[in-house]
Amino acid sequence: MPKIRKILEMSVFDKAIERMVAVYEAGHRVMVSFSAGKDSGICLEICRIAAKMADRLPVEVVMRDEEIMYPGTFEYAERIAAEPDIDFNWVYACQPIVNAYDRHKPYFWVFDPDLGPDQWVRQPPDFAYRIEHLNIQQITIPARFPPPPGKELYNVMGLRAQESAVRLMGLFQSGGYVTKPNEFGVRGCRPIYDWKDGDVWKAIRDNKWDYNSAYDVMSRLGVRKTMLRIAPPTMNAAGCKSLALAASAWPGWFEKVTHRLDGVRLAVNYGKRAIEPLRRRGETWEACYDRTCLRNAPEWIRPRAQAVKDIVLKRHNGHSPHALPEVAPCMTCMGNMGSWKRLAMAMYHGDPFCLKATFRRKGDKAKGKLPLDYIEPEFFKPGSGTWGGTPNFS
User: Fold this and answer.
1) Disulfide-capable partner of 50 in 21, 137, 322, 367 (CB 3.0 to 4.6 Å)?
2) Domains in the chain and their CATH numbers?
3) Cα 246–93–119 angle (5° rounding)?
């Protein structure tokens, strides 16, 4: 088997600086995508060092405001924005974000123009400006940040291969820390792709760098180091445990969130079972699916659940004489749809972004073509626009 990993002859810290110095010295325009998380914070600091070495200060940074994040997040961002060697672009798009705790309204809109500012969890700073694009991939584009003539726009991201096998394979596929230009002509740049969690925290400690204080709070509450992540807390149902901890850490903030978003308090009080299909005593998972995902489901979920049910059964019956299993999945069926229980879990919230219903129609060759359409923001809020591509939040 060929060797697929290369041993560096220097620390990952020095290698990350070397990578960014090369990009800066080549004359390309470099934008750091900042989320106020630890990885994007490390990228910003690495770029600050590299830009100084290449005489390319200030470091250009862009961050999209998500309105609802753990306290400490935007405070950290404002401290960074005030640094003299940072050119900080704080943008907001009034874009929809997932609220995994509400089946009827699976989106909420950041700084919703239809609400008064007093109904938002917080307000953006005075120097923030609005952009028209809802899709996160269109934040850093040449039309907004034009590169010098003959040069390219680089988008620096805090992606690390340790976090998932998919990211690792993506790095192998791209052949290095710089990606090919995307559909907008922007190259992704991942200078810390080979860092581990320990490398991140060691760099912060050794260099006395600023960071998001929310990490300290969550760590004291018992969140494991590998689970310390900063992201919109309503993105998926798995976040209800972290939200419960946040409710005890920041009760005032939590009260604002629960007034802003339906379903959050219920999920925190009763856990994931409050937002999952519940099978009644003596009921099969097939009957549970029909009851919770079809008969008693919100209007927008019902046709999607029926379409997925029809496809799964047709495919299963094509290779098996037996009925679709109740719990233990059929290993021949694809994805998360190999049993009635998995089907119910996947479609209970309608899968508006086709994250679970990822099988293709027979004969479909186009990458990403699915039996379901993404639910566009326009569907729930007329006039709010469309994704302009694949829904993406990170």
Assistant:
1) 21
2) 12-202 (3.40.50.620), 285-380 (no CATH)
3) 50
